[in-house]
Every structure is written in C-alpha cells, then in structure tokens.
Amino acid sequence: MDNPSLRFNKHTYTFYNWKIRRYFGRVKIYTYGFALFTVGSALTSLGTNPLEVIIFRGVQGVGAALVFTNSIAIATDSAPRNQLGLFLGINQIAFRAGALLGLTLSGLILSFLDWRALFYINIPIGIFGTIWAHRSLKETALLDTDRHIDWGVSLFFLASCSA
Fold first, then answer.
1. I need a surface site. Which of 10, 71, 130, 149 has the fewest CB within 10 A?
2. What is the CA radius of gyration of the chain?
3. Could you tell me the sign of the dihedral formed by the alpha carbons of 91, 96, 97, 102, in that order?
C-alpha cells in the first residue's frame, strides 16, 4: 500500500529517530527501546479490551523500532570497515532467525496456552536485553549535545503531520 500520509509519517519518524540518536546516543536509545518493548509487552499481556491491546502494542512497536534501527547503527559504528558486511550480516541473520523462531513458538504457545502468554515470554527476554545492553554496549558515535532540541515545535510538527 502506497499511502502518502503513511510514507510521510515513516520518513518523519526516521528523521526524528536520527536526530534523537545524535543527541542522546545510539546505545542509550537502543537500551531505552528494549525497556519500552518490555513495558509494552507487559502492558499488552494485561490489556482488558481491544483498545488497550492496540495502544500497548503500539508502545511495544515503538520500542522494537528503536531496537531494530539502532542495532544497525551500532553495528556500523562498532565494526572495522573491512568487516562491516560480516557485522551487518550477523545482525540481519539474528533478526531473521528471531522472526522465524517467534512465529514457530507463537504457534506452539497458542496451541496450549492463552494469547497473553505470547507477551509474557517477551518480558524476561526484554529484561535480559535491557540489562545486557546497559552493561555491555559502549557509545562509539560522536554525540551532538551542543544543539538544543525544541521539543514543543517537534511534537507540534509530528502531530500536524499525523493528523
């Protein structure tokens, strides 16, 4: 589907993700993304009506997007130039393997347990990922902390683009 509004919102999100990463650091945003994904999973498992589940899945999706986009940037920053292809390949294989394993496990889980168990399983994985990222990853990119982000204008711009 080629909806101009969705395409514009995707590019706007990508732009702000890039600006925020340069200000706060890729590793910090990656770690917060893991934490947000975990919180979204926990809240989704507690959802009592469809609207709550949709909203909490949105929270989970934003966290997953922060992890996915920043993992590529962290791998690019950390890899020696002659091994960049190897680093990115391993990164993509891990995501693809996780997607395949997730689909397979979700089918098995739904065969025996309630749908909420699909989100319960993400909680320990997310906690582990958040702690691992916080302890293990070091920021290698140059931060642009001299600049000020005008959050009010930014939120207004995003809201007007999404309307």
1. 10
2. 18
3. positive
